[in-house]
Write a structure and sequence with these properties.
mainly alpha; elongated
């Protein structure tokens, strides 16, 4: 005996059949949104801090580097060090990624101090800055980091 030939189903028939079977299936649960609202606002706040820190550093460099160089000449040693300021900004930028892993914090702080020391020594060796200029660059950087975060930090210190 020959097996019976099966009829090929048309596309319309297949579609109708799958629609019928879907009617009796349990509805799928809606997928949960993986968007983390607190993470979004934390990142947004960090970006705002970085932008304000960069703006304050640029303004400080204008007043503590550009203006003294215009008044006293290009080869002065006591103008604020842009190298120190930019190094602190880059280290501060990287800190937001290092801060996620608590085991890296202490080693990153030591690394940051070593990098800042090397940059400071290099600026002194090539006779582009003296201690005053390096200290001005460092103080400018610290102020630029603290000012945008002042609302968060003001309640932590008692005078």
């Amino acid at each position: 005996m020959k097996p019976e030939k099966q009829k090929k189903k048309s596309k319309k028939q297949v579609k109708k059949q799958t629609q019928k079977s879907k009617k009796f299936e349990k509805p799928k649960k809606k997928e949960k949104n993986n968007f983390n609202n607190t993470e979004y606002w934390r990142k947004r706040k960090q970006i705002r801090w970085l932008i304000w820190t960069g703006i304050i550093m640029l303004i400080g460099l204008f007043f503590l580097k550009i203006i003294p160089m215009e008044l006293f000449g290009e080869d002065i040693l006591f103008d604020a060090s842009a190298h120190i300021t930019l190094t602190v900004f880059v280290l501060y930028l990287v800190w937001f990624y290092v801060d996620q892993n608590k085991s890296w914090r202490n080693s990153y702080l030591v690394f940051s101090l070593v990098v800042l020391t090397l940059v400071a020594l290099q600026r002194i060796v090539v006779e582009k800055h003296d201690g005053t200029g390096l200290l001005l660059g460092f103080i400018l950087s610290v102020i630029a980091i603290l000012v945008p975060r002042w609302n968060k930090l003001k309640n932590k210190f008692d005078f």
